[in-house]
Amino acid sequence: MHINPSIPHDELKRTASADTQTPIVFVVDDDVSVREALELLIDSAGWIAQTFASAADFLAANRPGCPNCMILDVYLPDRNGLDLQKLISDDRREMPIIFVTGQGDIPTSVKAMKAGAVEFLTKPFEESDLLNAVEDALRRSREAIALDSDMDTLRARHASLSRRERQVLALVVSGLMNKQVAYELGISMVTVKTHRGKVMEKMQASSFADLVSLAGKLGIGREPTAAPEKVSSAR
After folding, report:
1. CA 34, CA 116: separation in Å to the nearest integer?
2. What dihedral do alpha carbons 151, 156, 161, 163 form, nearest 10°?
3. 52 near 102, Cβ under 8 Å?
4. Tens-digit pLDDT string for the chain (235 aa)
5. Half-sphere exposure of 141 (CA within 13 A, CB side)
6. Distance from C-alpha of 53 to C-alpha of 76, rounded to nearest angstrom
7. How are beta strands 24-28 and 68-73 bridged, if at all?
8. What are the helix (H) ranges across the chain?
9. 77: cis peptide before it, omega within 30°?
10. Contact at 8 Å (CB) between 209 and 200?
11. What is the C-alpha separation between 23 and 137, in angstroms, rounded?
């Protein structure tokens, strides 16, 4: 791939992430000329390029805390690109992958796309196609980071609940009425209402429907909840 000098710099310049963090585009390719060309293109587009000659070099690098994606060659000297994709797909959901290869075939591209790749480009490819793929990948990265941040906040709210408040939460979102929750936990209805109010406050739920939705995101209440043992203490 060669950089086309006729393309004005302003056309290549892309907008940084909304939170002002400049996105990072990782390039993993054993061809030094490809790495250098991609680095120039990525930098010209307003992103930060970090290049690696092998999967091992990439895996040894620090994990970024900003929007990011990867441009990955299918065939590497130490590890197949598809294997690297499989290795990091669960742990790095905020890092979408764009495959590039000089030896593309339909089965390989289908496998990569089914595993979540944003794009599969065969060398030589158009710079505009790559830039568009990177923009799409970074958009997905921002969305994944935002979702993870929201979930961290939600988990922290749930962690702030007392043991009894968690029991009340699990029972009310599973569909039990206050008097049923009181019976299951061996406490008074007044105490249930008090705990329920605290749960609403700590979870920052605007309504019961909102509370059910928040609990669902945490995996609470999706299945019938087994009632805790009746305990008369810790009211």
Report:
1. 23
2. 90
3. no
4. 544 433 333 333 443 334 458 999 999 999 999 999 999 999 999 999 999 999 999 999 988 889 999 999 988 888 888 889 888 887 788 899 999 887 766 667 777 777 678 888 888 889 999 999 999 999 999 999 998 889 989 999 999 999 999 999 999 999 999 999 999 999 999 999 999 999 999 999 999 999 999 999 999 974 444 444 444 444 4
5. 31
6. 8
7. parallel
8. 9-12, 32-44, 55-59, 81-89, 106-114, 127-159, 163-173, 178-185, 189-203, 208-217
9. no
10. no
11. 11
- The residue assigned the tokens 């962690």 is 159
State both tokens at 220.
């609470």
One-letter amino acid at 212 equals V
Structure tokens at 205: 């739920």
Helices H / strands E in the chain, number of each:
10, 5
Q: What does the chain come to in residues?
A: 235
Residues near 231 by beta carbon (within 8 Å), at least 6 away in sequence: 185, 186
